[in-house]
Specification:
CATH class of the largest domain: Alpha Beta
Bound molecules: adenosine monophosphate
Helix content: 25-40%
Mean pLDDT: 96
Order of helices and strands: EHEEHEHHHEHEEHEEEEHEEHHEHEEH
Structural class: alpha+beta
Largest sheet: 8 strands, antiparallel
CATH superfamily of the largest domain: ATP-grasp fold, B domain
Radius of gyration: 21 Å
Shape: globular
Number of strands: 16
Low-confidence stretches: none
Distance between the termini: 61 Å
Strand content: 25-35%
CATH topology of the largest domain: D-amino Acid Aminotransferase, Chain A, domain 1
CATH architecture of the largest domain: 2-Layer Sandwich
Strand order of the largest sheet: 13-12-9-10-11-14-16-15
């Protein structure tokens, strides 16, 4: 019952496991609302640590350090889902960890995730487990060719993934990944990719930002546009999947569901992330409540905020590649009045590394996408 929930109020300290840009944007939202933020990761001078009250540098397997960290905060959340289960359990012995360890367990492994989805009637790509060379032929018989082979755990942004068109190629891909547990998925010739970012409160309340259209380049998100340009019926079905999934997971926090829209108008869940997501970054500038503020509200047991958009929006990622000819021309992008610059405080601009993003607001999603791409182009075309 809502009335029995005692919220964690401003002034309290919230702990974040992980220290990347998602933790940074969470910490900024939390500090704006008067919370203190402690971050825990193996590194120092991190994107999250730079804007936190306390930055702890220790290994996730140093359970004494994790326990000490948890004792200094009122609740713990995380900004990446590959935190070891023992670390989450150690923290949960002292304070609530939200989302809970059960959600992490499911989403840390693609096979567990897809099995959970399909066994609960959620639409997904056809898939089969691959744990040995002998599994490959029956797996491909199920998925058909081409297929995508993905490592079951620890893969992101296309790492540990291969598209295969024959059993021989699949066999090579499996060996190349060290013969670790993999999932074979049917290749989806999709019309578009989109996501639903949702939040669920401690009282079971549900909020979402509609459907967001996503374009990837080399498996890394490149451009997100909201609202997604897709049929209203498909959008509505995706929101219903989101609502039911959040409930089934008994989620408290933010979750992103990545979907494919097939050419026949079917929606398929590709992947879950139990935290704010790159495709939801545009909510900072375009929605009344951002995904990060919503994560804070959910984790603290506060009522969720309005997710209404103030304008259509588009977000373009800024990868380290942009620095190839020197520091990008920030002033040129800032000269566009509807464009916002977000940088994550990372010192080393490696190719493929997410260094920041731009968001543009406009009267339509098309215009927002055009504007943000123009702004990004201006960063590297110094006169
Ligand atoms: P993932 O790590 O699963 O999010 O995959 C990264 C990207 O690879 C996705 O956003 C898609 O563009 C592509 N991809 C992943 N799985 C499939 C699939 N089964 N069929 C077609 N493309 C896929």
């Amino acid at each position: 019952m809502t009335s029995s929930i005692k919220p964690i109020l401003p002034g309290a300290a919230i702990g974040v496991l992980g220290s990347g840009q998602l933790g940074r944007m969470f910490a900024i939202a939390a500090r704006q609302m008067g919370y203190r933020v402690h971050t825990f990761s193996p590194e120092t001078d991190t994107p999250t640590g730079q804007v936190s009250d306390v930055e702890i540098a220790a290994s996730y397997s140093d359970l004494d350090a994790v326990r000490k960290f948890a004792q200094g905060v009122a609740a713990v959340t995380f900004e990446f889902e590959n935190v070891p289960a023992v670390c989450v359990e150690a923290a949960a012995a002292f304070v609530p960890v939200r989302p809970g360890g059960g959600v992490l367990h499911i989403t840390q492994n693609r096979l567990r995730e897809k099995t959970f989805l399909s066994s609960n009637g959620f639409p997904t790509t056809v898939f089969a487990p691959v744990r040995s060379q002998a599994d490959l032929a029956p797996a491909l018989a199920k998925t058909g060719l081409p297929a995508i082979l993905k490592t079951a755990s620890s893969g992101y942004d296309g790492k540990g993934q291969a598209k295969v068109v024959s059993l021989e190629e699949a066999s090579r891909a499996f060996a190349d990944c060290g013969s670790q547990e993999m999932i074979a998925e049917g290749f989806v010739d999709f019309e578009l990719e989109f996501s639903v970012v949702l939040a669920r409160g401690l009282d079971g309340s549900f909020a979402h930002w509609g459907t967001i259209e996503n374009r990837h380049k080399h498996h890394i998100l490149d451009l997100s546009t909201a609202p997604a340009r897709m049929a209203a019926g498909a959008s509505a079905r995706a929101i219903e999947v989101a609502r039911a999934l959040a409930q089934k997971l008994d989620l408290v926090g933010v979750l992103c569901i990545e979907f494919f829209l097939t050419r026949s108008g079917e929606i398929l869940v590709n992947e879950l992330a139990p935290r704010p997501h790159n495709s939801g970054h545009l909510t900072i500038d375009a929605a009344r409540t951002s995904q990060f503020e919503q994560q804070l509200r959910a984790v603290c047991g506060l009522p969720l905020g309005s997710t209404e958009f103030v304008a259509a929006a588009a977000m373009a990622n800024l990868l380290g590649d942009l620095w190839h000819a020197g520091e990008p021309d920030w002033a040129a992008a800032c000269a566009l009045p509807d464009v916002k610059l977000h940088l994550y405080g990372k010192v080393e601009p490696r190719p493929g590394r997410k260094m920041g993003h731009l968001t543009a607001l406009a009267a339509s999603p098309e215009l927002a996408a055009q504007t943000v791409l123009l702004a990004r182009q201006k960063l590297s075309t110094r006169a």
